[in-house]
Amino acid sequence: MALDLMEQLSATCACIPAATATARITGVSGLAVTVSGLGGLASVGDRITLMKRDGTEVPAEIIGFSGTVARAMTFGSLDGIGSGSEVRFPLFIGPSAPKPGGSLRVSDAWVGRIIDPLGRPIDGKGPLPQGDRTRSVRSSPPEATLRGRLGPRIDLGVRAMNLFTTCREGQRLGLFAGSGVGKSTLMSMLARNTACDVAVISLVGERGREVREFVEDDLGPEGLARSVVVVATSDSPPLMRREAAYAALTVAEYFSDQGKSALLLMDSVTRFCQALREIGLSMGEPPATRGYPPSVFAELPRLLERAGPGLVRPDGSAGQISALFSVLVEGDDQNEPIADAVRGILDGHVVMDRRIAEGGRYPAIDVLRSLSRTVPGCNSADENALTRRSRAILATYADMADMIRLGAYRAGADPKVDEAIRLQPAIEAVLSQGKHDCARLPESFAALRDALDETPIPEDPSATG
After folding, report:
1. Beta bridge pairs of residue 173
2. DSSP per position, 323-355
3. Coil/strand/helix, residue 192
4. Helix axis angle, 415-431 relative to 441-452, nearest 10°?
5. Boundaries of each AAA+ ATPase domain copy (predicted)?
6. I want to staple 319 with a disulfide (CB 3.0 to 4.6 A). Which of 131, 255, 310, 314 is the partner?
7. Structure pTM?
8. E strand or H helix at 371
């Protein structure tokens, strides 16, 4: 009892700064402010407080230096801040000093809550309980040689993905789609149906009007009950939008470190990169590919690599963060810079096609352009043969679709085309799924087998030992 009390007192004292340094704002340019007077006390990533003329406080972060002058960006509005405004910088002593980049004290009580990127509740349900341990928001990915391997295959509850982009626990997938193709609905299906312990959903730059609709209609009470939702709307400052991604990874890492299977859904990586672009350009970085400064493409792998298997514990187990990062492709161009960079980092990609959505089939997943790099190793030989044959049928039909529609193809000219014409509608029916439906893995493969009128290939008894 006495030991617990001493630990609580020590943690409380660690949150009290030893002193507070003061400085002054000497300029405001665009989204950045210049601060003089901090000398050698501060470093990049440190949090400071700007005082508005009406006495209110605005949190900010130091993003760079020009000589002895610091440059900072705020987590709130710049209105009311001018030259000469006071800046406060708390000074901590010893190992308890907060790390640059901010921190969160995540706890199990965060499940079922909606928070902002700074860990403050925004759902009207009262104060957010704080955990015992402070976690750095800008932590590094686990050491490659010490992290676990991918776990068993995970049931996503979405038939098209279970069949053609089958995933394993700890795998990272990209969801590539243009605007209005249905990716938010697909992500809500994954949040409700995926077999995991907890889901962490990061809405980066989301439309403010759609947040309640997503939480109440798409996610629903059942999905929210096992989720932590981190929200930064499109009108938020770039630091808040950037922080929404880091905060979500920090929350997911908390549950993964407990040995739990966490599902991370981030919508979207593109808006995260746009926030980084705004920050970089405010710092004076040169615009490179399509206006994105080089720091954006350096920061992407540091974010995405944090998802996946955690460090191996003494008992040989490891927590898993299975992640799906959506990418809002500009102009439906699947090779635009952000999409191309993300695709090269992740373990597979799911492509949503506007033409499929316009044809009325949802989710509008183009299975011919989607893949999971772990499929050969996590499905049985019978299941792999089933999906390969289905892909071949869909590819044959896609190649001949124009001729079929024009009536230029005559039945009997090619047996493979005849088979594709006969089976394509049944496969499309299997791929179609309502947003409130849940399709489990065995049911998904059974439905595809029935569509192809396929007899299961018996397993070799000698192979099972």
Report:
1. 324
2. EEEEEE-GGG-TTSHHHHHHHHHSSEEEEB-HH
3. helix
4. 150
5. 169-357
6. 310
7. 0.89
8. strand 371-372
